From TrEMBL:
Its EC number is 4.2.1.68. This is L-fuconate dehydratase. InterPro entries: Enolase-like_C_sf (IPR036849), Enolase-like_N (IPR029017), Enolase_C-like (IPR029065), L-fuconate_dehydratase (IPR034610), Mandel_Rmase/mucon_lact_enz_CS (IPR018110), Mandelate_racemase_C (IPR013342), Mandelate_racemase_N_dom (IPR013341), RHMD-like (IPR046945). The keyword Lyase applies. It comes from Acrocarpospora pleiomorpha.
Length: 433
């Protein structure tokens, strides 16, 4: 685990051409990865990335590079200590603290270190984490700012309570996989025929829940929800996602207008920083649940959402908060409050990452799949060395060592920005690792 080099790559996919990923706030995203490769003195590699939707990579890759002094030349075996050291840098911390571009950079580096550790152990990350002792897990965490909701002893109690039955849950996961839902039919830029076709395909593929983007035009939302309901049938779970489009009052009114279509949940109805706004919406639209998390900046905001009773589903993101370490703290917070975790995976590589976190949660934290599903989108998996596998609407537990985060060398070369041939803006390309 002695790291001798850190490399960054700006990788962008032109998904805006087909409107894949389009929603009410992000009409033309180019799914992108600010990608990092860590090398050890014995030739091993760890891979991680921060997900952006295009030009943000200009800033994000630079932020990742700024963390080079914290890992290069260091034995990174103690990932709890590395995490706390990086987060605690006072000058970089000033840019947050613990949020925004620098925190996402920390996530990319920490996730690359976890990928490296799992590869050196010869295990997929979900299994590596699940086999740690409760004491080893809590030693990874930073409890500062959350002890009013979750103490070290609380965390130990949750993890110890999940110890019985772990082996049986591992076998169940290997046999049955983890339930998924698909957002692939629901992008806002798709026409009605494509929506209808993709809903039918989702049913045929065994998915038991879908999600539609909403929030740009109420009449359009009603029409699209009607189409989805006609194809999927009464009672079939159809969630909706507003991607932060509304003020509090607008959200309450808009969801009221969609209530006849029985939304399974409403996701990101307002600003991800507005805990009290989410709580007000949750009260007014009940029994329709509220879900959020993909843009929540850290464990502290999640703590407040849970304390305020603002969410019924917690949607952590593998690449926005401080990587695996902070996401474990968030899983434990959710378990403390009895809120199911349904990870966000709408973006390049996020499906590959969050499957490991959800599987670890099932085995070692919550001990349950009840009410839990992982988002799935059918985009860009072919670019990964160890892509996700979906069978009968469920994630198949990955077997390859690591965090499933390594991109194929051919994809790095083709989609490197601005050098890659798909962008065609430079005559020569730099060497690709």
């Amino acid at each position: 685990m002695r790291v001798v080099a850190l490399e960054t790559h700006d990788i962008r996919f032109p998904t805006s051409l087909e409107l894949d990923g389009s929603d009410a706030m992000n009409p033309d995203p180019d799914y992108s990865a600010a990608y990092v490769v860590l090398r050890t003195d014995d030739g091993a590699k760890g891979h991680g990335f921060a997900f952006t939707i295009g030009r943000g990579n200009d800033v994000q890759t630079t932020a990742i590079k700024a963390l080079e002094p914290y890992v290069v030349g260091r034995d990174c075996s103690d990932l709890g200590a590395v995490y706390r050291d990086i987060v605690g840098d006072s000058q970089l911390r000033w840019l947050g603290p613990e949020k925004g571009v620098m925190h996402m950079a920390i996530s990319a580096v920490m996730n690359a270190l976890w990928d490296l550790r799992a590869k050196l152990a010869g295990k997929p990350l979900w299994l590596l984490l699940a086999e740690l002792s409760p004491e080893e897990i809590v030693d990874l965490l930073d409890f500062r700012y959350i002890t009013d909701a979750l103490t070290r002893q609380d965390a130990l109690d949750i993890l110890r309570a999940a110890e019985p039955g772990k082996r049986a849950r591992i076998e169940r996961l290997r046999a049955d996989g983890f339930p998924a839902y698909t957002t692939s039919p629901g992008w806002l830029g798709y026409d009605d025929d494509k929506l209808r076709r993709l809903c039918k395909e989702a049913l045929d593929e065994g998915f038991t829940q879908i999600k539609l983007k909403v929030g740009a035009d109420l009449d359009d939302d009603k029409r699209r929800m009607r189409i989805a309901r006609e194809v999927c049938g009464t009672g079939f779970p159809i969630a909706v996602d507003a991607n932060q489009r509304w003020d509090v009052a607008t959200a309450i009114t808009w969801i009221g207008a969609l209530a006849e279509f029985e939304p399974w949940w409403v996701e990101e109805p307002t600003s991800p920083d507005d805990m009290l706004g989410h709580a007000a919406i949750a009260r007014e639209i009940a029994p329709i649940p509220v879900a959020t998390g993909e843009h929540v900046q850290n464990r502290i905001v999640f703590k407040q959402l849970l304390q305020a009773g603002a969410i019924s589903y917690l949607q952590l993101d593998a690449a926005r908060v401080g990587g695996v370490n902070e996401n474990i703290a968030i899983l434990l917070l959710a378990a403390k409050f009895g809120v199911p975790v349904c990870p966000h995976a709408g973006g390049v590589g996020l499906c590959e990452l969050v499957q490991h976190l959800a599987m670890f949660d099932f085995i070692a934290v919550s001990g349950s799949m009840d009410g839990r599903v992982i988002e799935y989108i059918d985009h860009l998996h072919e670019h990964f060395v160890d892509p996700v596998v979906i069978e009968n609407g469920s994630y198949v537990a990955p077997l390859a060592p690591g965090f499933s985060s390594a991109l194929r060398a051919e994809s790095l070369a083709e989609f490197a920005y601005p050098w890659g041939p798909v962008w065609n803006t430079a005559s020569e390309s730099p060497p690709i690792s």
